[in-house]
Amino acid sequence: MQSGTMHTNYKVIVYAVFLISILCSSTLYCAINKNDAHIYFNGKNLTKATTNDDILDLSAMNITGIAPGAFADNDAVKILRLNENLLVTLSSATFRGLNHVKHINLMGNLIEQLDDNAFSFLPDLEELDLSDNSLTALSPGIPKSLPKLRQLHLNANKLFLMENSFVGLQDLELLELTSNNMFDLYDGVFNGLDNLKHLDLYGNKISELRKDIFQNLRKLQELDLSENIIWLIHEGAFQGLKSLEYLWLNGNQLSTLEDAKIFQGLRKLKTLYLHHNPISVLDFNCFRNLRSATIEPGFRINNKIIMNISDFIKTSISKYTCAFENYNEPYTCHINITLTDANNEKIRKFGISDL
Ligand SMILES: *[C@@H]1O[C@H](CO)[C@@H](O)[C@H](O)[C@H]1NC(C)=O
Ligand SMILES: *[C@@H]1O[C@H](CO)[C@@H](O)[C@H](O)[C@H]1NC(C)=O
Ligand SMILES: *[C@@H]1O[C@H](CO)[C@@H](O)[C@H](O)[C@H]1NC(C)=O
Ligand SMILES: *[C@@H]1O[C@H](CO)[C@@H](O)[C@H](O)[C@H]1NC(C)=O
């Protein structure tokens, strides 16, 4: 009897799976279970998804659209995964009903447009990942509807951002904007980010840093500007970055560092990364304000010279050490050096006496 019941149950399950596979392949209506979630489709359109679990995983399901109200009554869900789907747009209040969701992952979709209210009514949302989509702009309603957001990932989109793009995100601590279309940092673009600690702008096409561009980022600790095409840093560009500890400027087009005021204001800086820049003219006075910073990993100029100026920064402003990489032979040099001609395998001119 016992085994007979089990056998019948088994047959029912096999039949149910068979039925579901027929329904799913018919592209009309389909209900499937994934990690205890009940998920309903109309074609590739998600019409309803509910779970009692705290994770609702809808990743990699080829979803092309989400019908209004699809997430109603999901009080338990804290994490919603919709990454690696085919979503192109998110309409108003798409996520309404996810009353306690903290993290939404939309990475790797085809999203070009977001309704102003796409993320409204999500009072607990702390982390939003929109990386690897096709966004060109962020409409002003979006940051305003996310007052508790702490982490925003916008990597690998096509964003070019204007003034006040993030106003409303007063609790945001991490903002990632790597590999976008940012060829300039517009005045006031970071307004309102009063609690930002990490800003990542790696791999854009930024060519200049304007005066006061980071002015209001008083809590920022890490700023990554590496792998851009920055060739000009205006005086006062880093003004206001009172808490900054790490600054990545490596992999840019800086050829001249002469202005004694370019790094002014970076009182807490611990490490400044400048490698992989074609630096040929350098006045060490520009590091004068960096009280406790290390310039890492020393300069490498056309792979010929490594200049180690960490001693200079730590001790006095009168001496630093430099060495030829090939011979590894240390020299003691005075400051206020102009380096020219890094191309000629020979240093044409050092403004020092000891060499
Ligand atoms: C999504 O679509 C691809 C390509 O058509 C297919 O290979 C894959 O099995 C689909 N995945 C799901 C979960 O339907
Ligand atoms: C599919 O979803 C979109 C929202 O993305 C909705 O506007 C549309 O009516 C849905 N289509 C069907 C056939 O359910
Ligand atoms: C620079 O000097 C410091 C101490 O003087 C040393 O620890 C560090 O390895 C040196 N860096 C390079 C790249 O030579
Ligand atoms: C640095 O060198 C320039 C000439 O190249 C000179 O005019 C200037 O006084 C020097 N500054 C210091 C602090 O030695």
CATH class of the largest domain: Alpha Beta
List of distinct ligands in this structure: 2-acetamido-2-deoxy-beta-D-glucopyranose
Q: How much β-strand is present in the residues?
A: 15-25%
At the fold tier of CATH, the topology name of the largest domain is: Leucine-rich repeat, LRR (right-handed beta-alpha superhelix)
Number of domains: 2
Number of strands: 25
**What fraction, in percent, of the residue positions are helical?**
under 10%
Tally of individual helices: 3
In the CATH hierarchy, what is the architecture of the largest domain at level 2? Alpha-Beta Horseshoe
Q: Categorize the overall geometry.
A: elongated
What's the helix-strand series?
HEEEEEEEEEEHEEEEEEEEEEEEEHEE
Give the overall pLDDT as a whole number. 77
| Largest sheet features | 11 strands, parallel
Ranges where pLDDT stays below 50 over 5 or more residues in a row are 1-6, 296-355
Q: Write down the Rg.
A: 27 Å
Secondary structure class reads: mainly beta
Question: Can you walk me through this structure?
Answer:
The protein has 355 residues and is mostly beta strands. It folds into two domains: 1-34; 44-334, Alpha-Beta Horseshoe (Leucine-rich repeat, LRR (right-handed beta-alpha superhelix)). It has three helices and 25 strands. The protein has helices at residues 2-25, 141-144, 310-314; strands spanning 30-34, 37-42, 45-50, 55-57, 65-66, 79-81, 89-90, 103-105, 113-114, 127-129, 151-153, 174-176, 198-200, 208-209, 222-224, 232-233, 246-248, 256-257, 271-273, 281-282, 294-296, 299-301, 305-307, 319-324, 329-334. The protein has an eleven-stranded parallel sheet. A four-stranded mixed sheet has the order 1-2-3-5. A four-stranded antiparallel sheet has the order 22-23-24-25. A hairpin with a 2-residue loop joins strand 2 (37-42) and strand 3 (45-50). The radius of gyration is 27 Å and the shape is elongated. Mean pLDDT is 77; it is low at 1-6 and 296-355. The structure holds 2-acetamido-2-deoxy-beta-D-glucopyranose (4 copies). One 2-acetamido-2-deoxy-beta-D-glucopyranose binds next to loops.
